[in-house]
Amino acid sequence: MISLKSNFLSNTGISGSCSPFSAKQRGLVPKAPTSLKIVALNPNREANGSVLMENTLQEIRDGAAVLNTVAGGVRDVYGEDTATEDQFVTPWSLSVASGYSLLRDPRYNKGLGFSDKERDAHYLRGLLPPAVVSQELQVKKMMHIIRQYQLPLQKYMAMMDLQESNEKLFYKLLIDNVEEMLPIVYTPTVGEACQKYGSIFGRPQGLYISLKEKGRILEVLRNWPEKDIQVIVVTDGERILGLGDLGCQGMGIPVGKLSLYTALGGVRPSACLPITIDVGTNNEKLLNDEFYIGLRQRRATGQEYSELLYEFMSAVKQNYGERILVQFEDFANHNAFDLLAKYGTTHLVFNDDIQGTASVVLAGLVAALKLVGGTLADHRFLFLGAGEAGTGIAELIALEMSKQTNKPAEETRKNIWLVDSKGLIVSSRKESLQHFKKPWAHEHEPLKTLLDAVNDIKPTVLIGTSGVGRTFTKEVVEAMASFNERPIILALSNPTSQSECTAEEAYTWTKGRAIFASGSPFAPVEYEGEVHAPGQANNAYIFPGFGLGLIMSGTIRVHDDMLLAASQALAAQVTQENFDKGLIYPPFSNIRKISAQIAANVAAKAYELGLATRLPQPKDLVKYAESCMYSPAYRNYR
C-alpha cells in the first residue's frame, strides 16, 4: 500500500517516471510536492507484518547534479547514478518492488544476482534457487546459450527476451560483446526480424500510433509510463533498410536503434521511446498475412498523412518540451526530406538515414585520405543511388569541401556525381527530377549505366546507396581499379543481401588494392596470403554519441556543423594500427570512448553556435560525457 505524508506527483520525478494512472486520474492529484512515504507490504502477510520504508524526495533534490545531468542528461530522480556503485539504492516502482513483482520488473530484476540480504529484504526467499552468482557469470552463461543457436533470428529473439526480463544484464552483455552482438540486435538481423515481426511479436515494445488515434495522440503519448523522455526514434515503416514497406512491423528499427543509444551512447533506457506511426501499408503480402499486426489498409498519403505527422510532432513538443530529440528513421524519400525540412527549424530533429549516414561516411573518407593522399577536393565521387542516403552523404561532402576550400557549395558539388535508376543525373533531366536530386544535375551527356559513368567520369571514390544487391559488378570494380592505385569502394546498402558487392569481391577484383567498407559486416578476406579486414560504415558509430552530445548540452536545434564535428571526431579515432590493416574506421570494441569524443565535439559546437541551453558549459566535455553515461552494473538494494 502507499501512504502519503503530503501531496505529491505532478512535476516530480516520481510522477514522471512511474505513475500508471490515467490522464484523468493524474488530473485529480494535488500538485504540491514535498515528500513521499512508501509502505511496501508482503502480500502474503498481515498488515502488522509490513515493512515500512520511507524516502524523502527533498533529499534527492538537494544535489544539483541530480537535477541537471546524469545518465544521458535525464534527471536522476531515483538517485541511482549519482550514488557511487557501492552505495545502496531503492528499487522504486509505484511502491517499492518486492517479491515476485521485483523478479518481473526488468529494470530492477537481477535474477540469481540478488544477494542473500536482498532476498530477505525483498521477500525473494524461495522464489529463486539458493545460488548467488555475479553479473559477469550471468553474462558468460547467456553468451553460451546464445551461441548455441544456429540462426541469427533465434539469437535476436533470445536477446529481446533478455531485454524484457533483465534490462541491466541485456546492456551489460551487449556492451561487453558489442562486436559479436551488434549484428544481432541491429543490422543485418533486425531486417529479418522486421519482416517476421508479426510472427515473433510477443510483449509490445514502444508506442504504436495509428490513424485510429488521430486527434488523440497527446493522450497516447501520456499512456507511456516513463515521462522523462529525451530521445524518440520514430518510423512509419515505409522504407525499412533495403527491404521496402514493412508497415507496422518496422517497429524493430526504433527498438534496435534505441538499444544502441543506451549500449553505445550511454543514454538511460528509461529516457528512450520507440514509436511506430501506422498509416497502413502497400505491401500486399503483409495485408494478406493473418499474423500482420498493423492496420489492414493502403497507406494514407497527402493531407491525411501530413495532418497526422503534424499532430504527432506538436504533441511530442507539448508533452516532452523543447529539448526532446526526435530521430526520423526509415521514412520513404518523399517524406524523409519534407519532414526534415519542415520540422528542422521548429524541433530538435535528426534523420539518421540522411544525416547520420552522411556523417559516418564522411568520417571514413577523411580517414581514407591518410591512405590515398590529397584532400577531399582532389577526389571525384560517384554514387549509385540518389535517395536519402546518397544525396545526404553527397551534400555533407560538398559542405566539408566548401569549408576546406572557401568555395561555395555550388562549386564543390561539381566533384560529385550521382546515378539513379534512370542513369547519370545530368542537367538535361532536371525538369523531371525530384527536388532533392536537382543540385546534382551537372552538364554532361546522358549515360544509362553505372559502368558507362565509371568509365567516363573516372571517380576515385565509388559509393553505393542503391538498396540493390550486387550492382557493383566485376566490370565496374575492375574499371575502378584500372585508373586508381587504391580505389575507395563503399557498398553501404543494408542488410547484407542488398550490399552492392561483398568484401571478397571488392578485394579479389581489385587484386587486394581496394579500400573497402560496407553498411553491414563482412568477415575478413584473405587474398594472396594477405588478410584484409573490411570496415563497416555503420551509423552506430555516429548517432549514439551525436544524440548524447545534443542531450547533455540541452541543444534545441541540429546544425550541419554538428554533423561535421561528429565526423571529425570519429575520423580522429582511427589509429595507425587500424590504417596498417586497411581500416578507415576504429574497432567497435572502443565504441563508448568513441561516443564520448563525438558527444563532446557535438556539444562544443552546440555551445559555439549558441544552441545549447545547459549552462554553464562544462570545462571538460569528454569527461562530462563519460559521467553522463548509463552503467549496466547491478546496484545493491536496501
Topology overview:
Blueprint: E1 2-3, H1 13-18, H2 23-27, E2 36-40, E3 51-55, H3 57-61, H4 64-68, H5 70-73, E4 88-89, H6 99-103, H7 116-121, H8 135-148, H9 152-165, H10 167-176, H11 178-185, H12 189-195, H13 197-200, E5 207-210, H14 217-223, E6 231-235, H15 252-263, E7 272-278, H16 284-287, H17 302-320, E8 325-328, H18 333-343, E9 348-351, H19 352-372, E10 381-384, H20 388-405, H21 409-412, E11 416-420, E12 423-424, H22 450-457, E13 461-464, H23 474-482, E14 488-491, H24 503-509, E15 515-518, E16 525-527, E17 530-532, E18 535-536, H25 543-553, H26 560-571, H27 576-580, H28 591-609, H29 621-628, E19 636-637
Parallel strand pairs: 4-19, 5-7, 6-7, 6-8, 8-9, 10-11, 10-13, 13-14, 14-15, 15-18
Antiparallel strand pairs: 1-2, 2-3, 11-12, 16-17
Helix pairs in contact: 8-10, 9-10, 9-12, 14-17, 19-20, 19-26, 22-23, 25-28, 26-28, 28-29
Give me a quick take on this structure.
This is Malic enzyme. It is built from 29 helices and 19 strands.
List keywords for this structure.
single chain; 638 residues; alpha/beta; Hemocyanin, N-terminal domain; Rossmann fold; 4 domains; seven-stranded mixed β-sheet; five-stranded parallel β-sheet; globular
